Amino acid sequence: MSRSPLRREGTAAVALGASPMALFLLLPIAALLLSLRPRVLAGLNSPFALRALWVTLRTTAAATILCVGGGLPLAYLLARFEFRGKQFLDTLTDLPITLPPVVAGVALLLAFGRRGLIGKYFDLAGIHISFTGVAVVLAQVFIACPFFIKAARAGFESVNPRLESAARTLGATPWRVFWTVTVPLSAPSLLAGTVMAWARALSEFGATMMFAGNFPGRTQTLSLAVMTAMESDLDTAVAVSTLSLILALAALAAARYFSPRHD
Predict the structure, then answer these.
(1) Tens of pLDDT along 169-218?
(2) Contact between residue 32 and residue 242 where contact means Cβ atoms under 8 Å apart
(3) Is residue 167 within 8 Å of residue 177, measured between CB atoms?
(4) Coil vs helix vs strand at 143
(5) 61 and 30: one domain?
(6) How far apart are CA 226 and CA 192, in angstroms?
(7) Which long-range contacts (CB under 8 A, 24 or more apart) does 42-48 make?
(8) How many whole angstroms separate alpha carbon 242 and alpha carbon 258?
(9) C-beta separation of 111 from 139 below 8 A
């Protein structure tokens, strides 16, 4: 069935109005890709880029595991239970999304630094957190975990509570119901949230810079490596930026693949 002229005109008008923003979003990505040249691509194999890539993959993997392990029960609590202070906890969970990353880094430093609220006790025990790889992971978890919690909560809320009740009436324990009914039915949202949390950890910059520093091979992630390379070698900065772009596109594709589909 062909579209009516009125509908075609409406579609054309909306497309025309959307074009400026679409082009604005596309232009920087196109500029980055068009700047790729053989000598730029050679920078992808440089020790500088490979060290930053290894630190990034190692820390984001650890951060994602912590986001899932710690965020899963919190998301289920917010999705299934009513309690005093729930609104406050919900707001607190979302706060890192709106908090400037640099401010988050300062807050983490004041909490876990050598003279921080909790960090001073770790320091007395000979455990140093700030400006280490652990600090990179904590910064990434703080910034990325809300993305997993929001997706997981939406997935849990999409599961019909009657199915969980039916499983319990058949003798299943709450623990077994959670792992055999709730988690499988909300798996698409959980997987999408996991990927998005990893992607956000991948792009983290400000909190990491403030709390972990920028030490090559130890705390220098791809985002920090781009900043360092921009000071002396634009080609290397472009190469590392392209590497980050590839990882981000892969994460976005995976998140879209796992996202729940509504027919």
Answers:
(1) 888 888 999 999 999 999 999 999 999 999 999 999 999 999 999 999 99
(2) yes
(3) yes
(4) helix
(5) no
(6) 27
(7) 42/239, 43/233, 43/235, 43/236, 43/238, 43/239, 43/240, 44/239, 44/240, 44/242, 44/243, 46/236, 46/239, 48/216, 48/225, 48/229, 48/236, 48/240
(8) 24
(9) no
Instruction: Compute the Cα dihedral for 64, 70, 74, 80 and give only its sign.
Output: positive
- Count how many domains the chain has: 2
User: Residue 241 is part of which domain span?
Assistant: 46-258
Alpha helical stretches, state H, 4-84 = 5-34, 38-42, 47-80
Residue type, 226: V
Q: What is the 8-class DSSP label of residue 44?
A: G
CA 212 to chain centre: 18
Instruction: Assess whether 126 and 28 both reside in one domain.
Output: no
How far apart CA 89 and CA 102 sit, in angstroms, is 22
* Domain co-membership, 73 together with 172: yes
Paired tokens of 41:
């691509």
Predicted TM-score (pTM) of the model is 0.88
- Residue 171's region, left for phi above 0, alpha for psi from -120 to 50, else beta, is left
**Token digits of residue 151:** 């997706």
Is 128 a member of any domain? yes
d(CA 136, CA 219): 6
Lowest mean pLDDT among 14-28, 45-59, 85-99, 183-197: 14-28
In degrees to the nearest 10, what's the CA dihedral of 200, 203, 209, 210? -30
Q: Which two tokens stand for residue 159?
A: 């599961």
